[in-house]
Specification:
119 residues; alpha+beta; single chain; three-stranded mixed sheet
Length: 119
């Protein structure tokens, strides 16, 4: 299945659509630390397509994170606004680790005066 509604141009591979969906999903700001995105934090774990649309796996920074629902809804809203049928699935195993924070995320945290954990 192609990730974008209406198919894809003949010169584009369906994976290109998945990369576009990943870029949209990962650009969502973290609602608690708006200086970083959910992509910076590494919580977007996987993106797949199937007959029902796009499915995005998200691992919260901790299982009781109060922002989890807000993050999931923001990702769903952003990807749907780009014309995709989308489902966000919460995945708790493996548990999130600070090792998943990207180099860009660490730099953004540091620039905001937050000491990022070492990788």
């Amino acid at each position: 299945m192609v990730a974008a509604q209406g198919g894809h141009p003949p010169d584009r591979h369906p994976a290109d659509g998945l990369e576009a969906v990943r870029m949209i999903a990962e650009a969502v700001p973290d609602p608690e630390l708006v200086v970083v995105t959910v992509g910076d934090l590494g919580i977007v774990r996987d993106i797949r397509t199937d007959a029902a649309g796009v499915e995005i796996d998200v691992t919260p920074t901790y299982s009781a994170c109060p922002a989890t629902l807000a993050i999931e809804l923001a990702i769903e809203t952003a990807v749907a606004a780009a014309g995709h049928e989308v489902r966000v699935r919460r995945v708790l195993d493996p548990a999130w680790t600070t090792d998943w924070i990207t180099a860009q995320g660490r730099a953004r945290l540091k620039a905001a005066g937050i000491a990022p954990p070492a990788p």
